[in-house]
Amino acid sequence: MTTLPSSLLLDWKRIFKWGSICAAALLFVSLVGMPIKLDPKSIISPLLSLGYVSLLWLPLIFGYVASSRVVLEGVETRKPGLPDLLTGVLTGTIGGAGLTLLMLGIENFDIRDPLINWSPQLLEVLAFGARDLNSAVWIGIGGALGLVGAGLHLIPENLRRGASYGFFTVLALAIFEPALDDMSEGFRLEWLVELIFEKRGGLKLWPAIILALLIGLISVVTKGKAKNAVAQYREQEKSQKKKTSVVLFGIVAALGIVLPIFMGTYVNSLLANVGIFLLLALGLNIVVGLAGILDLGYVAFFAVGAYTTAVLTSELSPFFAPGMTWVLSLVFVIILAALTGLFIGAPVIRMRGDYLAIVTLGFGEIIRLLFLSDFLKPYFGGAQGILGVPGIDLGVVYISGTDTRGIFYLVLFFCAIAVYVSWRLQASRLGRSWMAIREDEQVAEAMGINTVNSKLMAFVVGAVLASFAGAIMAARVGSVFPNSFMILISIVILVVVIVGGMGSIPGVFVGAFVLIGVLGGPKQPGLLQEFGSLKLLVYGMLLVYMMLQKPEGLVPSARRTQELHQEEFLQDAWLKGTDDEDEEQTVAGEEAQI
Amino acid sequence: MSHLLEIQNLQVTFGGLDALSGLNFHVDEGEIVSVIGPNGAGKTTFFNTITGLVEPTGGDILFQGDSVLGLEPNEVTSLGIARTFQNVRLFPNMTILENVMVAQHCRTSQNVFGALFQTKAFKKEEQEIRQRAEEILGFFGSRLVGYRLDQAAFMLSYANRRRLEIARAMATQPRLMLLDEPVAGMNPSETAELTELIGRLRSEWGFTIVIIEHDMAVVKNVSDRVVVLDHGVPIASGSYEEVSTDPDVIEAYLGRPVESHS
Lengths: 594, 262
Description:
heterodimer; A: mainly alpha; ABC transporter involved in vitamin B12 uptake, BtuC; 3 domains; two-stranded antiparallel sheet; globular; B: Rossmann fold; six-stranded mixed sheet; four-stranded antiparallel sheet; 10 strands
């Protein structure tokens, strides 16, 4: 073993690199307007708001990254020490200096024309509300945060984990505040919420500290037992795993059924939103995740479902208004969605990859523009859409559009159908043929699979699931407009699938909750409604981050993980001794061949 | 008796280059025929044309007396022609069992409704597909069964990938099997074993087999008949002994001057 030379000399190049990236990130975040827009969302009242968090975490993270040491296998890693701390401080300082310059710039120049956030308002936020704060204070703040970030390397791992758990608990509590507030009424726990949260929003200082300490302590004591449990679950035998999965699924299902009873309008409507996107994402997951068809016009089927329901059930439908019940109209929704699937699928099915994506993108827009057009205005009402879509009469109960709990249960039911469909199809003749097509279309065809039929079926199944979401949406909103079916919806659904984990049903659930529930859908506010238009930026950043760091998604399917980490898997198998080493001289034979 | 596969004056042209020019060829039921020839002789094109991946510019291909021209590859497969690929092309992220199960696609018929409502017929068919897959994999000894069944195909060693490809071709329940260099990259003991296996494919499973192969030991051991291709035309045909002494063949392989190449 050799030891890397440890010297007190600082790696200036590295410091400047990370420092300037940090400064650039801070400037970007400020000028995009995050501190201003997110300031109303209080985390610890009145000390810390989400706006400040959006700035403060940057020097900390960059300090941490800049001072992390190179870890090489077989080489003893240098102990972290003073130089690392200094690296962190300097990186943070450079970052902070960026903000100082920004403040000076805002004071002395006015370039508000291209940069709307180059404003006194930003200056006020950056000056912590004080009028005559010396802008140099940010240099100090940056340095201090960089020090903290670098310091994370120095403290024992346990403590580090405790600290991060504590921090994320507070953050999560603050994010979920509106939901908790809403739920507390159902559980008669208002007193608890009052104890923790300030009336105006945000946690109270002392409860926040106590909770952070408590969770931090618990995480230190349990020492990552949760992680072990997950690992254990992964290692289980197939039959055992199946049992555990069933139990887990049962718990989630039971919670899904029981919890809404205790939840108020706010959470239920939030969940109904999440559910509609979840349903769409589950459908797209079949098309993209299983069959490998990158459909960027998925919103078309959503629109067809919504419009079919609207035309058939609404009395105000301009041309043809049979005034059916919602349930009866569902039959026609299925038929029409399937036909649309065939109609759109047939011409694009012979294309592959990027070409297919572009053409489906076009079809998605075409459908929306058709509904918007003057040509079809007599039938679908053009831009005015169709109003007066009634609620859902199920015979036993009547679910009106404003009955969020009823809508949520309905969405839940259809999500269950979607999960069932994906689960059953995956282990069927059709599902296998989809997978084969995704892997190698030409070989699949040579192995006797009618790829055209199989791919069309994928389109049809996906279309029907999306149309369910459309039908529910029409009844929920009570009207349909062409502009509810923008291309953005297709993209958001795809992002949900990718971030969650392509081909993984639990992944799609997590993706939908994180993206739609927390950040919000294209037009639906999530828990963090302050994000507003910024959420698209966050979506993009999240997507880039995922592609670089975790391309298999948040909750990946085993298959997809394998696919993306083939080499590691082979290495693991080799270490475990379960790899496929052929008879003696295989390797020699292979090398000779090469 | 008509031939199982008969190829009449087959022509394939790629942008002015004749990959195959006027090929006549036939295989009878129960034969093992080897197709050999130097690199670029058109052997793989020949297979691709039979299986419908390449459209011929002229000539005809008759399988069991009917023309297969203009059929999609999957239709050709369902008629009873299966193939393997020279550069192993498995479905790498599907399990070994799935690889073989999926190849029974054209012999099975259950659709979405069977799968969604778990009908009796669906369950029965799934059971049969699985059983047949395991039976086929069992043909290769213990290498592809047991815990391997649920392993992804990419985890297999090179030789086992080749075996799995043959298993996959078997699962389409063909009458005629086209093996494209089945032993390429295998060591001598594996080659010997696979050679024996090819013989058993005929005796136990009743497949008629056409093999493209460079390994002359294999060609010598398995084939009833050898056809030599060069520049898209057959230059010799007959038993291994006849062909191996044919001056044209020796010239095609070695060239006239002493220009050694592999």
